[in-house]
């Protein structure tokens, strides 16, 4: 399931390229996103048929469990990328993604609060994915004609952002540092306020009010925090967890471009363009590193 983080990053890149009016590049990225998504779905379905015990073990894993909703979030993001050109197809994809996201959110939350014993060391920023991922839904949902449903998803996502942020910060401050493989997930801290900013603008008619400014400001705060960990990140060998960098940077890029458009700020416009270039470089680097790791047999090794 961690592989679906690549689809999230590619979907974010597609939408960011569209927002910057790089239409040809956006369509290419969209085709690549859909191709990667379908390949991953086919691969994971084959794994579920041949090795159901491995899938069950992932569901029972305290860290890997959080990545299951990356599948449904990928669908919601693909719907967002499709909406400008194929709204009818996007609507269908969004509905499937929304149903999946709702179901997986409840399943993961039920698992968290059930009889299983989780420890503080099991918590990481990846825990934002199941519940806070709901905030993605309104970005396309409002425009596709699902405003009330989008409000429900937004409410759930924002509530659990606050709850999980407290838990994650407690773990980061008062307990052992994250294992090396999980360090890239610190970038996920950027995503909830950035996506929340985009979703709130959709829900409130595009008005840059105080709450929108708060969310964008929080995005910048967590960006600054994540940048303090770049030194550690550069010393780590490549792993699938590095794809956790892609979607947060895409969300940051989109939020900055939207903020620039609403305020007319040249500084934010150029910051958005710079972030877009950085996003393209990050995605390209991750694709090359992933292909190289696959050829070397370094992906999907037993832990």
UniProtKB/TrEMBL annotation:
The chain crosses the membrane at residues 29-46, 66-86, 92-114, 126-146, 152-170, 182-201, 213-231, 243-261, 267-291. It is found in: Membrane. CDD domains: TDT_SLAC1_like. The keyword Lipoprotein does not apply. It comes from Pseudophaeobacter arcticus. Its main location: membrane. Keywords: Membrane, Signal, Transmembrane, Transmembrane helix. InterPro entries: SLAC1/Mae1/Ssu1/TehA, Tellurite_res_ion_channel, Voltage-dep_anion_channel_sf. The lineage of its organism: Bacteria, Pseudomonadati, Pseudomonadota, Alphaproteobacteria, Rhodobacterales. It is a multi-pass membrane protein. This is SLAC1 anion channel family protein. Residues 1-19 form the signal peptide. It comes from the Bacteria.
């Amino acid at each position: 399931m961690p592989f679906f983080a690549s689809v999230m990053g590619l979907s974010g890149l597609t939408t960011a390229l569209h927002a910057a009016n790089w239409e040809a590049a956006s369509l290419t990225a969209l085709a690549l996103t859909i191709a990667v998504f379908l390949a991953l779905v086919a691969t994971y379905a084959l794994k579920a048929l041949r090795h159901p015990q491995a899938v069950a073990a992932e569901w029972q894993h305290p860290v890997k469990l959080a990545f299951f909703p990356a599948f449904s979030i990928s669908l919601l993001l693909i719907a967002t990328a499709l909406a400008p050109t194929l709204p009818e197809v996007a609507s269908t994809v969004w509905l499937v993604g929304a149903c999946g996201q709702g179901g997986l959110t409840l399943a993961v939350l039920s698992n968290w609060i059930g009889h299983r014993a989780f420890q503080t060391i099991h918590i990481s920023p990846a825990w934002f994915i199941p519940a806070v991922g709901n905030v993605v839904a309104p970005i396309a949902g409002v425009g596709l004609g699902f405003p009330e449903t989008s409000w429900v998803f937004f409410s759930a996502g924002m509530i659990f952002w606050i709850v999980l942020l407290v838990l994650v910060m407690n773990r980061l401050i008062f307990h052992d540092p994250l294992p090396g493989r999980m360090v890239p997930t610190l970038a996920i801290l950027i995503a909830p306020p950035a996506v929340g900013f985009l979703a709130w603008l959709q829900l409130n008619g595009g008005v840059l009010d105080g709450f929108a400014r708060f969310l964008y400001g929080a995005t910048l705060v967590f960006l600054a925090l994540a940048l303090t960990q770049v030194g550690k990140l550069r010393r780590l060998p490549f792993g699938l967890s590095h794809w956790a960098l892609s979607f947060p940077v895409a969300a940051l890029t989109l939020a900055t471009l939207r903020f620039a458009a609403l305020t007319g700020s040249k500084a934010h416009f150029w910051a958005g363009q710079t972030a877009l270039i950085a996003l393209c470089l990050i995605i390209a680097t991750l694709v090359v590193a992933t292909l190289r790791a696959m050829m070397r047999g370094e992906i999907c090794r037993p832990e």
